[in-house]
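Fill in residues.
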Protein backbone atom coordinates (compact mmCIF):
# COMPACT_ATOMS: atom_id res chain seq x y z
CA UNK A 1 0.00 0.00 0.00
CA UNK A 2 1.14 3.53 -0.76
CA UNK A 3 -2.02 5.32 0.33
CA UNK A 4 -3.36 5.36 3.89
CA UNK A 5 -6.10 2.93 4.80
CA UNK A 6 -9.51 4.44 5.50
CA UNK A 7 -8.98 7.79 3.74
CA UNK A 8 -12.05 8.77 1.68
CA UNK A 9 -11.82 9.72 -2.01
CA UNK A 10 -10.32 13.15 -2.63
CA UNK A 11 -13.57 15.12 -3.20
CA UNK A 12 -14.92 14.00 0.17
CA UNK A 13 -11.63 14.53 2.03
CA UNK A 14 -11.19 17.92 0.36
CA UNK A 15 -14.69 19.01 1.34
CA UNK A 16 -13.88 18.27 4.98
CA UNK A 17 -10.56 20.12 4.71
CA UNK A 18 -12.22 23.15 3.08
CA UNK A 19 -14.36 23.57 6.18
CA UNK A 20 -11.23 24.03 8.34
CA UNK A 21 -10.47 27.76 8.28
CA UNK A 22 -7.41 27.40 10.50
CA UNK A 23 -5.88 24.79 8.18
CA UNK A 24 -6.40 27.01 5.14
CA UNK A 25 -4.94 30.04 6.89
CA UNK A 26 -1.85 28.09 8.04
CA UNK A 27 -1.29 26.70 4.56
CA UNK A 28 -1.84 29.94 2.67
CA UNK A 29 0.60 31.74 4.95
CA UNK A 30 3.31 29.05 4.74
CA UNK A 31 3.11 28.21 1.03
CA UNK A 32 2.89 31.89 0.05
CA UNK A 33 6.08 32.60 2.00
CA UNK A 34 8.01 29.64 0.50
CA UNK A 35 6.72 30.47 -2.98
CA UNK A 36 8.03 34.05 -2.89
CA UNK A 37 11.39 32.98 -1.45
CA UNK A 38 11.80 30.28 -4.10
CA UNK A 39 11.06 32.66 -6.95
CA UNK A 40 13.75 35.05 -5.67
CA UNK A 41 16.30 32.23 -5.20
CA UNK A 42 15.68 30.88 -8.70
CA UNK A 43 15.89 34.35 -10.27
CA UNK A 44 19.50 34.58 -9.06
CA UNK A 45 20.59 31.74 -11.37
CA UNK A 46 20.91 32.88 -14.99
CA UNK A 47 21.24 29.34 -16.37
CA UNK A 48 18.30 27.94 -14.40
CA UNK A 49 16.49 26.64 -17.49
CA UNK A 50 19.67 24.94 -18.71
CA UNK A 51 20.05 23.30 -15.31
CA UNK A 52 16.49 22.00 -15.53
CA UNK A 53 17.15 20.60 -19.00
CA UNK A 54 20.38 18.98 -17.85
CA UNK A 55 18.75 17.43 -14.77
CA UNK A 56 15.90 16.08 -16.88
CA UNK A 57 18.34 14.51 -19.33
CA UNK A 58 20.37 12.91 -16.50
CA UNK A 59 17.28 11.41 -14.90
CA UNK A 60 15.98 10.14 -18.25
CA UNK A 61 19.33 8.49 -18.93
CA UNK A 62 19.22 6.79 -15.51
CA UNK A 63 15.67 5.56 -16.05
CA UNK A 64 16.58 4.17 -19.46
CA UNK A 65 19.49 2.19 -18.01
CA UNK A 66 18.26 1.60 -14.48
CA UNK A 67 19.25 -2.06 -14.23
CA UNK A 68 22.87 -1.38 -15.17
CA UNK A 69 23.23 1.58 -12.80
CA UNK A 70 21.68 -0.36 -9.92
CA UNK A 71 24.15 -3.21 -10.38
CA UNK A 72 27.00 -0.70 -10.57
CA UNK A 73 25.80 0.86 -7.31
CA UNK A 74 25.50 -2.53 -5.62
CA UNK A 75 29.07 -3.43 -6.62
CA UNK A 76 30.47 -0.11 -5.42
CA UNK A 77 28.65 -0.22 -2.05
CA UNK A 78 29.69 -3.85 -1.45
CA UNK A 79 33.34 -3.18 -2.32
CA UNK A 80 33.41 -0.45 0.33
CA UNK A 81 31.99 -2.55 3.15
CA UNK A 82 28.25 -1.90 2.83
CA UNK A 83 25.58 -4.58 2.40
CA UNK A 84 22.89 -4.17 -0.25
CA UNK A 85 19.39 -5.64 0.11
CA UNK A 86 16.65 -5.68 -2.51
CA UNK A 87 13.00 -5.18 -1.51
CA UNK A 88 10.17 -5.80 -3.95
CA UNK A 89 7.56 -4.07 -1.81
CA UNK A 90 6.83 -2.39 1.51
CA UNK A 91 6.43 -5.67 3.40
CA UNK A 92 9.86 -6.92 2.31
CA UNK A 93 11.58 -3.62 3.09
CA UNK A 94 9.99 -3.40 6.55
CA UNK A 95 10.90 -7.01 7.30
CA UNK A 96 14.56 -6.34 6.40
CA UNK A 97 14.73 -3.25 8.66
CA UNK A 98 13.18 -5.17 11.55
CA UNK A 99 15.57 -8.09 11.08
CA UNK A 100 18.64 -5.83 10.95
CA UNK A 101 17.53 -3.83 13.99
CA UNK A 102 17.02 -6.99 16.01
CA UNK A 103 20.40 -8.32 14.83
CA UNK A 104 21.96 -5.14 16.23
CA UNK A 105 20.33 -5.94 19.58
CA UNK A 106 18.29 -2.73 19.48
CA UNK A 107 14.71 -1.94 20.43
CA UNK A 108 14.91 1.70 19.32
CA UNK A 109 15.94 3.49 16.13
CA UNK A 110 16.42 7.18 15.33
CA UNK A 111 15.22 8.32 11.94
CA UNK A 112 16.24 10.89 9.39
CA UNK A 113 13.26 12.39 7.58
CA UNK A 114 12.50 10.06 4.68
CA UNK A 115 9.66 9.89 2.18
CA UNK A 116 10.47 6.26 1.31
CA UNK A 117 10.04 5.06 4.90
CA UNK A 118 6.82 7.05 5.16
CA UNK A 119 5.62 5.43 1.94
CA UNK A 120 6.15 1.92 3.35
CA UNK A 121 4.79 2.88 6.81
CA UNK A 122 7.97 1.70 8.45
CA UNK A 123 7.23 3.31 11.83
CA UNK A 124 3.98 1.37 12.13
CA UNK A 125 5.71 -1.90 11.15
CA UNK A 126 8.50 -1.28 13.67
CA UNK A 127 5.98 -0.54 16.42
CA UNK A 128 4.21 -3.83 15.70
CA UNK A 129 7.58 -5.57 16.06
CA UNK A 130 8.20 -3.89 19.43
CA UNK A 131 10.75 -1.38 18.08
CA UNK A 132 10.37 2.34 18.85
CA UNK A 133 11.21 4.76 16.05
CA UNK A 134 11.95 8.40 16.89
CA UNK A 135 11.66 10.96 14.11
CA UNK A 136 14.43 13.53 14.47
CA UNK A 137 13.42 16.12 11.87
CA UNK A 138 11.50 18.78 13.83
CA UNK A 139 8.42 18.79 11.63
CA UNK A 140 8.32 14.99 11.47
CA UNK A 141 8.68 14.88 15.25
CA UNK A 142 5.69 17.23 15.62
CA UNK A 143 3.63 14.93 13.37
CA UNK A 144 4.76 11.84 15.28
CA UNK A 145 4.13 13.26 18.75
CA UNK A 146 0.73 14.58 17.67
CA UNK A 147 -0.19 11.13 16.27
CA UNK A 148 -0.95 13.03 13.12
CA UNK A 149 -0.27 12.54 9.44
CA UNK A 150 2.10 14.58 7.28
CA UNK A 151 0.65 17.17 4.95
CA UNK A 152 3.67 18.42 2.97
CA UNK A 153 6.74 16.75 1.51
CA UNK A 154 9.24 19.21 2.95
CA UNK A 155 7.34 20.60 5.94
CA UNK A 156 5.15 17.73 7.13
CA UNK A 157 3.62 19.81 9.95
CA UNK A 158 2.86 22.81 7.75
CA UNK A 159 -0.79 22.58 8.82
CA UNK A 160 0.15 23.29 12.46
CA UNK A 161 0.73 26.75 13.92
CA UNK A 162 3.04 27.35 16.86
CA UNK A 163 0.28 27.32 19.48
CA UNK A 164 -0.81 23.89 18.34
CA UNK A 165 2.83 22.71 18.38
CA UNK A 166 3.28 24.04 21.93
CA UNK A 167 0.24 22.07 23.07
CA UNK A 168 1.57 18.88 21.44
CA UNK A 169 4.99 19.31 23.07
CA UNK A 170 3.47 20.03 26.49
CA UNK A 171 1.31 16.92 26.29
CA UNK A 172 3.86 14.46 24.94
CA UNK A 173 7.50 15.55 25.23
CA UNK A 174 9.37 14.68 28.44
CA UNK A 175 10.56 17.88 30.16
CA UNK A 176 8.45 20.22 28.00
CA UNK A 177 5.40 20.66 30.25
CA UNK A 178 5.83 24.44 30.52
CA UNK A 179 7.36 25.27 27.13
CA UNK A 180 6.10 28.51 25.52
CA UNK A 181 5.00 28.92 21.92
CA UNK A 182 8.10 30.97 21.04
CA UNK A 183 9.85 29.21 18.12
CA UNK A 184 13.24 29.36 19.90
CA UNK A 185 11.77 27.71 23.03
CA UNK A 186 10.07 25.01 20.97
CA UNK A 187 13.28 24.32 19.05
CA UNK A 188 15.28 24.17 22.29
CA UNK A 189 12.84 21.68 23.85
CA UNK A 190 13.06 19.47 20.76
CA UNK A 191 16.85 19.76 20.71
CA UNK A 192 17.17 18.57 24.32
CA UNK A 193 14.74 15.72 23.75
CA UNK A 194 16.50 14.55 20.58
CA UNK A 195 20.04 14.94 21.91
CA UNK A 196 19.32 12.20 24.45
CA UNK A 197 18.07 9.94 21.66
CA UNK A 198 21.06 10.59 19.37
CA UNK A 199 23.50 9.69 22.13
CA UNK A 200 21.78 6.51 23.28
CA UNK A 201 20.29 4.84 20.18
CA UNK A 202 22.51 2.30 18.37
CA UNK A 203 20.60 2.11 15.06
CA UNK A 204 19.62 4.87 12.62
CA UNK A 205 17.30 4.63 9.62
CA UNK A 206 17.53 7.11 6.76
CA UNK A 207 16.28 7.63 3.26
CA UNK A 208 18.46 8.99 0.47
CA UNK A 209 18.15 12.04 -1.75
CA UNK A 210 20.66 10.66 -4.23
CA UNK A 211 23.07 7.77 -4.75
CA UNK A 212 26.12 8.05 -6.98
CA UNK A 213 26.50 4.82 -8.94
CA UNK A 214 30.16 5.28 -9.87
CA UNK A 215 31.39 5.30 -6.25
CA UNK A 216 28.48 3.86 -4.25
CA UNK A 217 28.10 7.11 -2.30
CA UNK A 218 24.77 7.97 -0.66
CA UNK A 219 23.66 11.58 -0.22
CA UNK A 220 21.25 13.11 2.30
CA UNK A 221 20.51 16.84 2.29
CA UNK A 222 18.80 18.53 5.22
CA UNK A 223 18.61 21.77 7.15
CA UNK A 224 18.64 21.00 10.86
CA UNK A 225 21.71 18.84 11.49
CA UNK A 226 19.57 16.03 12.86
CA UNK A 227 20.40 13.97 9.81
CA UNK A 228 24.13 14.44 10.32
CA UNK A 229 23.74 13.19 13.92
CA UNK A 230 21.81 10.09 12.80
CA UNK A 231 24.23 9.35 9.99
CA UNK A 232 27.36 9.56 12.13
CA UNK A 233 26.63 8.61 15.77
CA UNK A 234 24.89 5.17 15.72
CA UNK A 235 26.87 1.98 15.11
CA UNK A 236 24.40 0.67 12.53
CA UNK A 237 22.93 2.70 9.67
CA UNK A 238 20.08 1.37 7.52
CA UNK A 239 19.16 3.37 4.41
CA UNK A 240 15.91 2.75 2.55
CA UNK A 241 16.15 4.17 -0.97
CA UNK A 242 13.78 4.10 -3.91
CA UNK A 243 15.54 2.54 -6.90
CA UNK A 244 15.01 5.70 -8.98
CA UNK A 245 17.23 7.88 -6.78
CA UNK A 246 20.39 7.00 -8.69
CA UNK A 247 22.74 9.37 -10.46
CA UNK A 248 25.58 8.10 -12.63
CA UNK A 249 28.40 10.36 -11.42
CA UNK A 250 29.53 13.13 -9.09
CA UNK A 251 29.31 15.63 -11.99
CA UNK A 252 25.63 14.76 -12.25
CA UNK A 253 25.21 15.20 -8.50
CA UNK A 254 26.56 18.74 -8.81
CA UNK A 255 23.63 19.65 -11.07
CA UNK A 256 21.09 18.44 -8.52
CA UNK A 257 22.82 20.07 -5.57
CA UNK A 258 22.27 23.39 -7.35
CA UNK A 259 18.64 22.68 -8.22
CA UNK A 260 17.28 21.04 -5.08
CA UNK A 261 17.91 23.63 -2.34
CA UNK A 262 16.57 26.55 -4.36
CA UNK A 263 13.50 24.55 -5.39
CA UNK A 264 12.72 23.24 -1.93
CA UNK A 265 13.82 25.55 0.88
CA UNK A 266 14.71 28.49 -1.40
CA UNK A 267 18.29 28.35 -0.15
CA UNK A 268 21.41 28.72 -2.27
CA UNK A 269 22.80 25.55 -0.76
CA UNK A 270 21.73 23.10 1.91
CA UNK A 271 23.01 23.75 5.43
CA UNK A 272 23.88 20.04 5.72
CA UNK A 273 24.86 17.76 2.85
CA UNK A 274 25.98 14.38 4.17
CA UNK A 275 27.72 11.94 1.85
CA UNK A 276 29.02 8.53 2.86
CA UNK A 277 30.53 5.64 0.96
CA UNK A 278 30.26 2.20 2.52
CA UNK A 279 31.99 1.91 5.90
CA UNK A 280 35.03 3.82 7.14
CA UNK A 281 36.83 1.84 9.90
CA UNK A 282 36.80 3.73 13.18
CA UNK A 283 34.69 6.59 11.82
CA UNK A 284 30.89 6.70 11.81
CA UNK A 285 28.56 3.67 11.60
CA UNK A 286 30.49 0.41 11.34
CA UNK A 287 27.54 -1.46 9.78
CA UNK A 288 25.89 0.05 6.72
CA UNK A 289 22.91 -1.54 4.99
CA UNK A 290 21.33 -0.16 1.83
CA UNK A 291 17.80 -1.38 1.03
CA UNK A 292 16.85 -0.78 -2.61
CA UNK A 293 13.08 -0.37 -2.72
CA UNK A 294 10.90 -1.10 -5.74
CA UNK A 295 7.32 -0.89 -4.38
CA UNK A 296 5.68 -0.09 -7.72
CA UNK A 297 8.57 1.74 -9.36
CA UNK A 298 9.30 -0.94 -11.96
CA UNK A 299 5.65 -0.94 -13.00
CA UNK A 300 5.75 2.86 -13.24
CA UNK A 301 8.88 2.64 -15.37
CA UNK A 302 7.00 0.45 -17.84
CA UNK A 303 4.52 3.29 -18.52
CA UNK A 304 6.02 5.48 -21.23
CA UNK A 305 4.00 8.57 -20.30
CA UNK A 306 3.88 8.06 -16.54
CA UNK A 307 7.53 7.14 -15.97
CA UNK A 308 8.56 10.81 -15.91
CA UNK A 309 7.19 10.90 -12.34
CA UNK A 310 10.24 8.84 -11.35
CA UNK A 311 12.40 11.90 -12.08
CA UNK A 312 10.95 13.55 -8.97
CA UNK A 313 13.51 14.75 -6.40
CA UNK A 314 10.84 15.52 -3.75
CA UNK A 315 11.57 19.24 -3.68
CA UNK A 316 7.90 20.14 -3.05
CA UNK A 317 7.93 23.19 -5.35
CA UNK A 318 4.83 21.87 -7.12
CA UNK A 319 2.89 21.77 -3.84
CA UNK A 320 3.68 25.38 -3.03
CA UNK A 321 2.23 26.71 -6.30
CA UNK A 322 -0.81 24.45 -6.46
CA UNK A 323 -4.15 26.22 -5.82
CA UNK A 324 -5.84 22.91 -5.00
CA UNK A 325 -3.20 21.93 -2.45
CA UNK A 326 -3.30 25.37 -0.82
CA UNK A 327 -7.02 25.09 -0.18
CA UNK A 328 -7.33 21.44 0.79
CA UNK A 329 -4.08 20.65 2.59
CA UNK A 330 -1.97 17.59 2.09
CA UNK A 331 -3.85 15.02 4.14
CA UNK A 332 -6.79 15.02 1.73
CA UNK A 333 -4.54 13.25 -0.81
CA UNK A 334 -4.31 10.23 1.50
CA UNK A 335 -0.59 9.44 1.32
CA UNK A 336 2.84 10.81 2.19
CA UNK A 337 2.90 12.20 -1.35
CA UNK A 338 0.43 15.11 -1.41
CA UNK A 339 -0.16 17.84 -3.96
CA UNK A 340 0.40 17.57 -7.70
CA UNK A 341 3.16 14.96 -7.47
CA UNK A 342 1.07 12.90 -5.07
CA UNK A 343 -1.86 13.03 -7.45
CA UNK A 344 0.21 11.11 -9.99
CA UNK A 345 2.83 9.23 -7.98
CA UNK A 346 0.56 7.61 -5.40
CA UNK A 347 -1.73 5.98 -8.01
CA UNK A 348 1.27 4.89 -10.06
CA UNK A 349 3.16 3.29 -7.18
CA UNK A 350 0.06 1.70 -5.74
CA UNK A 351 -1.27 0.31 -9.02
CA UNK A 352 -4.79 -1.07 -9.42
CA UNK A 353 -7.99 0.83 -8.90
CA UNK A 354 -10.21 1.87 -6.03
CA UNK A 355 -12.31 4.96 -5.41
CA UNK A 356 -9.64 6.84 -3.48
CA UNK A 357 -6.79 6.07 -5.88
CA UNK A 358 -8.92 6.82 -8.94
CA UNK A 359 -9.96 10.18 -7.47
CA UNK A 360 -6.39 11.48 -7.16
CA UNK A 361 -5.70 12.35 -10.83
CA UNK A 362 -8.74 14.64 -10.60
CA UNK A 363 -7.29 16.52 -7.62
CA UNK A 364 -5.94 19.21 -9.89
CA UNK A 365 -7.00 22.26 -11.84
CA UNK A 366 -4.57 21.34 -14.69
CA UNK A 367 -3.36 24.95 -14.56
CA UNK A 368 0.22 23.88 -15.29
CA UNK A 369 1.88 25.87 -12.49
CA UNK A 370 3.43 22.63 -11.16
CA UNK A 371 5.15 21.93 -14.49
CA UNK A 372 6.54 25.46 -14.67
CA UNK A 373 8.35 25.18 -11.33
CA UNK A 374 9.39 21.53 -11.45
CA UNK A 375 13.21 21.38 -11.54
CA UNK A 376 13.13 18.10 -13.48
CA UNK A 377 10.37 19.22 -15.87
CA UNK A 378 7.80 16.58 -14.97
CA UNK A 379 4.75 17.40 -17.07
CA UNK A 380 2.31 16.66 -14.28
CA UNK A 381 -0.79 17.80 -16.23
CA UNK A 382 0.13 15.37 -19.01
CA UNK A 383 0.42 12.48 -16.55
CA UNK A 384 -2.79 13.52 -14.80
CA UNK A 385 -4.81 13.33 -18.00
CA UNK A 386 -3.04 10.09 -18.92
CA UNK A 387 -4.08 8.54 -15.59
CA UNK A 388 -7.60 9.91 -15.87
CA UNK A 389 -7.96 8.10 -19.17
CA UNK A 390 -6.99 4.81 -17.48
CA UNK A 391 -9.37 5.07 -14.52
CA UNK A 392 -12.69 3.18 -14.78
CA UNK A 393 -15.51 5.54 -15.81
CA UNK A 394 -19.16 5.63 -14.76
CA UNK A 395 -21.31 3.94 -17.41
CA UNK A 396 -23.13 7.20 -18.25
CA UNK A 397 -19.85 9.01 -18.88
CA UNK A 398 -18.49 6.22 -21.07
CA UNK A 399 -21.68 6.17 -23.15
CA UNK A 400 -21.73 9.95 -23.59
CA UNK A 401 -18.04 10.05 -24.53
CA UNK A 402 -18.57 7.30 -27.09
CA UNK A 403 -21.52 9.27 -28.47
CA UNK A 404 -19.44 12.43 -28.66
CA UNK A 405 -16.66 10.50 -30.39
CA UNK A 406 -19.15 9.23 -32.96
CA UNK A 407 -20.48 12.74 -33.61
CA UNK A 408 -17.08 14.38 -33.81
CA UNK A 409 -15.58 11.79 -36.14
CA UNK A 410 -17.82 12.93 -38.99
CA UNK A 411 -18.02 16.46 -40.39
CA UNK A 412 -21.66 15.99 -41.35
CA UNK A 413 -22.68 14.77 -37.89
CA UNK A 414 -20.59 17.45 -36.16
CA UNK A 415 -22.22 20.26 -38.14
CA UNK A 416 -25.65 18.83 -37.48
CA UNK A 417 -24.86 18.78 -33.75
CA UNK A 418 -23.73 22.41 -33.89
CA UNK A 419 -27.01 23.41 -35.51
CA UNK A 420 -28.94 21.42 -32.91
CA UNK A 421 -27.02 23.23 -30.14
CA UNK A 422 -27.84 26.56 -31.68
CA UNK A 423 -31.50 25.52 -31.97
CA UNK A 424 -31.54 24.51 -28.28
CA UNK A 425 -30.42 28.03 -27.44
CA UNK A 426 -33.34 29.55 -29.27
CA UNK A 427 -35.80 27.06 -27.82
CA UNK A 428 -34.95 27.13 -24.16
CA UNK A 429 -32.02 29.48 -23.51
CA UNK A 430 -30.42 26.59 -21.60
CA UNK A 431 -26.73 25.75 -21.70
CA UNK A 432 -24.72 22.76 -20.51
CA UNK A 433 -25.16 23.97 -16.91
CA UNK A 434 -28.62 22.46 -17.06
CA UNK A 435 -27.85 19.34 -19.05
CA UNK A 436 -30.31 16.68 -17.90
CA UNK A 437 -28.82 13.38 -16.67
CA UNK A 438 -25.32 14.77 -16.21
CA UNK A 439 -25.53 16.29 -12.77
CA UNK A 440 -22.04 15.14 -11.80
CA UNK A 441 -20.58 17.22 -14.60
CA UNK A 442 -22.90 20.16 -14.65
CA UNK A 443 -22.90 20.82 -10.93
CA UNK A 444 -19.36 22.16 -11.12
CA UNK A 445 -18.81 22.91 -14.80
CA UNK A 446 -20.54 25.56 -16.78
CA UNK A 447 -20.26 26.37 -20.44
CA UNK A 448 -21.45 29.33 -22.48
CA UNK A 449 -24.58 28.88 -24.50
CA UNK A 450 -23.92 27.83 -28.11
CA UNK A 451 -23.43 30.80 -30.42
CA UNK A 452 -26.47 31.72 -32.56
CA UNK A 453 -24.43 30.83 -35.62
CA UNK A 454 -21.48 28.45 -35.77
CA UNK A 455 -18.16 29.68 -37.16
CA UNK A 456 -18.46 27.21 -40.03
CA UNK A 457 -21.83 28.61 -41.07
CA UNK A 458 -20.56 32.18 -40.74
CA UNK A 459 -17.51 31.30 -42.87
CA UNK A 460 -19.64 29.72 -45.56
CA UNK A 461 -21.86 32.77 -45.70
CA UNK A 462 -19.14 35.38 -45.69
CA UNK A 463 -16.03 33.87 -47.23
CA UNK A 464 -16.78 30.97 -49.50
S1 LIG B 1 7.24 16.81 -9.15
FE1 LIG B 1 8.89 18.25 -9.53
S2 LIG B 1 8.29 20.07 -8.33
FE2 LIG B 1 7.08 18.35 -7.53
S3 LIG B 1 8.25 17.52 -5.82
FE3 LIG B 1 8.84 16.36 -7.64
S4 LIG B 1 10.66 17.41 -8.44
FE4 LIG B 1 9.66 18.82 -7.03
Amino acid sequence: MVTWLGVPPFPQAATEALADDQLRANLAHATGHIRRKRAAAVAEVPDWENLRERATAIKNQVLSNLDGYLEQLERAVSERGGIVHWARDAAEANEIVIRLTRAAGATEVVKVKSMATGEIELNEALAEAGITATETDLAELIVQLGQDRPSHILVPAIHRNRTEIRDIFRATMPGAATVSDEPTDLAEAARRHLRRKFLSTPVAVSGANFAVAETGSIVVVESEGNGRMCLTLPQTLITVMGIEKLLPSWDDLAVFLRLLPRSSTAERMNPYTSVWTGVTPGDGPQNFHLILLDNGRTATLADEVGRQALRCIRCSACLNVCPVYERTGGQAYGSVYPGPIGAILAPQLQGGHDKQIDSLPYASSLCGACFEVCPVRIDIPEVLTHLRAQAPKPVGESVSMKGLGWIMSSRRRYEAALRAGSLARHLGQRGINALPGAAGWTVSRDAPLPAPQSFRDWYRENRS
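The mean pLDDT is 93.
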